[in-house]
From TrEMBL:
PANTHER family: COENZYME Q-BINDING PROTEIN COQ10 START DOMAIN-CONTAINING PROTEIN (PTHR39683:SF4), CONSERVED PROTEIN TB16.3 (PTHR39683). It holds the Pfam family Polyketide_cyc2. The lineage of its organism: Bacteria, Bacillati, Actinomycetota, Actinomycetes, Mycobacteriales. It comes from Mycolicibacterium brumae. Gene3D superfamilies: 3.30.530.20. This is Cyclase. It comes from the Bacteria. InterPro entries: Polyketide_cyclase/dehydratase, START-like_dom_sf.
Amino acid sequence: MAVSDTREILIEATPAEILDVLSEAESAPSWSPQYESAEVLSRYDDGKPQQVKFVAKAAGMTDTMVLEYTWADDGVSWTMVSAGQMKSQDASYVLTPEGDKTRVRFEIAVEPSIPLPGFIVKKILKGVMETATDRLRKQVLSVQGN
């Protein structure tokens, strides 16, 4: 059963500052509790991650997945290349400047490869959404020194 969610948050930073944090894939485990480790497997010519291998833990399950990123000036998206516990994962950040802040819209769609009760999937997705918005905001502000 595929599930999806969308959330928006306003972050006191420019889109470039937010993308800088997102492009530091190796540091994701320091601010994202779902990730135990992150390893950049390949990079684009500009140095941004192209494929990243993550070891993630949620609801007592650990999974290794490889995500492929696509970068733009106004956001980033990724598609799952491989994983053990998921059939698919597609996600994106769209960044829209609003004065000296940026509206961040995060969308994700996932399909587990094993049947899970709906309440477990919703709990996992809630944690992912909190990390993708609230924890991202805290990380961006801490990098800025605010």
